[in-house]
Amino acid sequence: MPPAHYRYPTHNFTYVSSCVKYMIFLLNFIFWLFGGLLIGIGFYALIDKFHSTGFLKLDTIYDIILNISILMIIAGAVVFIVSFAGCLGALRENTCLLKFYSMCLLLFFLCEMGIAIVAFVFPHTMNGVLEEKFTDKIITSYRDDPDLQNFIDFAQQEFQCCGLSNAGYLDWGKNEYFNISSPSVERGGVPYSCCKNATDISSGLVNIMCGYHIQQLSVAAASKKIWTSGCIEIVRVWAERNLYTIAGVALGAAFSQLFVIYLAKTLEGQIELQKSRWS
Questions:
Q1: What is the pTM of this model?
Q2: 262-272: b (≥16 Cβ within 10 Å) or e
Q3: How do residues 90-108 score in pLDDT, each as one tens digit?
């Protein structure tokens, strides 16, 4: 008869932690739904834009980068695929899918850290690159893309700025509708979102004509009616003022990603141990 302290091995024993397994599954299921939602909204916005404008310009890489609906579709597709791999890998205990999942998360983490380091260590260089590469394209595409137009208007109102580069409100002279020599009624003007008081207090309506002919005024005269500084510099100053908050959020997101990567690698190791027990 075997000793009292001896226990027969049970066939139900497993190295795979149910807690780790279903935590990874639940987290990725939420992101999987979020990715699907982004894809759906992106496609809806893209179709709606096509119906309203009648064309879809995708000639250069900038046309894709500045097309918010396409960016939403791409971002949603990436989130959808990666989170689906995490869901299925955890649920089916598939190490190949888990390795793909953890590698994608690590790649995202390294890219985010690279961008953050460049932005914080070389802010003026980042400003110069953004101004050189995107100012002209964003300004000239303002009326061509309704989504981009809404985004620019929101940014100018939220950050109280006008234009993008150090030229400020004069950037809008590069747009065919706001150019001084344009036959448009908006010639020499700026978008209403540059105005300090675009909304009439009594009626509550937005005065879309408040920025007309502003470019023909001096900076001192224009500053009484509109915000004259470019948005890139304003956003940089705002980021410096809120540096600790931004850094805290970034570190929180980074540690969350590292924690999920740790969970995925832990589950991989547990699955490998379980497989070795069967062999």
A1: 0.80
A2: ebbeebbebbe
A3: 988 899 999 999 999 999 9
